[in-house]
Structures are given as C-alpha cells and as structure tokens.
Amino acid sequence: MKNALIDRFLRYVKIDTQSDDTVVNSFPSTEKQLNLSNLLADELKQLGLKDVSIDEYGYVMATVPSNTDKKVPVIGFLAHVDTAPDMSGKDVKPRIIENYDGGDIQLNPEISITIADFPEIKEYKGQTLIVTDGTTLLGADDKAGIAEIMTAVEFMMSNPDFKHGDIRIGFTVDEEVGRGVDHFDVKKFNADFAYTLDGGPIGELEYENFNAAIAKISFQGRNIHPGYAKDKMKNAIMIALEFDKNLPDWSRPEKTENYEGFYHLTKFEGTVEKANIQYILRDHDKEKFDIRKELIKKVADFINTKFGNNTVQLELTDQYYNMREKIKPVFHIVETVIKAMKEVGVVPKVKPIRGGTDGARLSFMGLPCPNIFAGGENFHGKHEYIPVESMVKAVEVILKIVELYEDNGQ
Fold first, then answer.
1. Which one, 26, 136, 207, 218, has the greatest CB density within 10 A?
2. In terms of domains, do 101 and 26 share one?
3. pLDDT digits (tens, 9 = 90+) for 391-405
4. Which residues are within 8 A (CB) of 27 and not within 5 positions of it... i.e. 6 or more apart?
C-alpha cells in the first residue's frame, strides 16, 4: 500500500492544477484542472468502477458497487483536484526523504524546513517524508486526499472478501477559490453522507468550520496637486488605512486561534484617487459572525460621514456557514470516524476548522460531510511536506469506516 500511495501521489502532484481566484466567468477557473480530472476518470474506469462520469464542470463521480447482501448506507468520499492560487503548482519537484533524522531539512540553498520555525516536524522522526524543492508548493492539499481515496478504491476492487455497500467517489475543482461545489449535483452523487479527505496532520477530524463572508471595499478619493492640496485632497490610500484602524487590532488571524474569529485583510491596492481593499470575515459562532458583519458596515458608515457620502462603497457577501448544525442530527457519522481511527491506531484530534471545505457547503446542500485528515503539513507554501505513514493511516481509516457500516448493516 505504501508504495502505491507514493506512486500515485508523485504522479498527481506533477500535474499543474492551480486554480485562479481572479477568474469569475468560467468554471473551473483554469482549464488545466481538467487534466487531472480526466486522468482520474480514466483510472477509475480501469479499476472497474461503475457509473464513472466527468461532467462539463470537471466533477468526477463513480461508484464502487456493493458486494454485500446487507442494507447499508451509501457512503461518499471526496477530494479536490486544484491547488492554491497564491503559490505556483507548476513544475513541482517532490523529494522523498527516507527515515527522516529529526533535524532541519534543506530544500535548496536558500530555503529550509527548520525545527525552530516548524517544531512539529520532529514528531515524524524515522518516517518517510515527501517535501518540495523550495520553489513551489507540494500539492498535498488535496492530492494526498485523492491518492488516499484512489488507493482505498483499488483495495476494495481487488479484494472481494472485503464487504461493503455502494461507495460513491467524487473529485471536485476550484475548492481553493471557494467555488468547489457551485455546480456539484448532490442528487446525482446520491450518497447518504460523505467525507472529505482534505484535513491536515494525522488524526484531524473536523465537523465545525467558520461562518464566512467576504468584504470588498472601494474608496473614492480626490487627487489634487500636493502643493495646493490643503483642505481639498482626499487621499484614498489614507482613508483605506483609517478604515482598517477602526477594526479591532486583536482580531486578526495572526492573533487568534481555536474558536476565535477574525478580520483578515487579504488585498490592498490603490492610488490617491482610488483604492480597493478586501477582507475575509470568519467566526464559528453565528451571532458573533453577524456582529462582525455589522461592525464592518458601521465603519463604512463612519468613513462616509467623516469624508463625505459615497467615499466608501461596501460589498459584503456571505460565503459559507458552519456545518455543525447539519452534522449534529446525524452525529453517528462523526462517532464512526472516531471509532475507525482508534481501531487503526490513530489518536482522534477533533477540532474546529479555521477555514472551510467543500464539505461545509455540501452539508447545507443536503449531503452531511465532515472532514478527515489527509496528512499534510504547511499547506499552500514552499515548506509543505507530508509523511507517507500518515497517508497510509488515512487509507486505513477510509476502509475501516466502510467496514464498520457494513458490520452494522441489517
């Protein structure tokens, strides 16, 4: 299993599937994502799955057909093909480190994964790590999840004595730009519930995520020659800076953790005449989330009162919500994962997602969908790495979930 995982993962990460958050008029945002989607559809057909399809949007779906007489739920497993838009996924050159010695890892002459900056890496001493060459991301988010699902699928198709019900497989696009399930057909997928393999280090299990909104704010200034600017100039850059100062300094990502929400300034561009900034707003608690949105509206009103009407234009849009309310009524899907992890020797680490996944939106579309670890660390950057042993355990967890539901079938 280990060698199969490594082979799959290395093949997948070498395919550039970077999505693009600046593209809004096409789906997926980049055609190159379809290269991996098409490959996966072909591999699923070769493995003998039923109902293999890839639709106009790049979604891949397939069925591992039931081989049991018991009545068991239809379980789905999903992962996304795209990699983050803010770091190159082209020409990924992964390197395998066997029997990691527990020290710093030199990726290239300029970049290292150091114990000082990433102390958790010491926990993987003696394991097999896959790292980058320090020029691109690795792509474990979420090609590790894909490789794990495909390896579990191959096991089920090759071992008829392993009993299971219908298992639905799905691969999505554009998850990294927040549009991963915009066109996903839940009815066609036809699962009772599902799991995304899109989490971080081994043991992570998430069924709570942020409520999320995005605020796009434009500032209209007035450009006057600086020598004659007194009482006339309105510097849009300075007004935007003042806007930011009116949001709480202590409520930023770099100063928050666990269930603490934040305002995250993600873009800032402008001139004296015109400036644009963008925030993402996050909070697990719905009431606090609403308060955050109200505050940013009040700051916009304040700036308009101070500098004149229409100085600020605010566009505030909800993105997704906390899946917890949709998971609670079917909490057995969480309890089963916890049991599966324990039975394969993984310590469950149930934690809230400080972000979102396809599963969050799918849960509100009628497909309850917690998130399971894929095993990677330092996603979206040059310091990304993944222990192969964690990937192996993810496959074992998938198979154990399937086994537990078949054992409990009628």
1. 207
2. yes
3. 999 999 999 999 999
4. 57, 58, 173, 174, 179, 182, 183
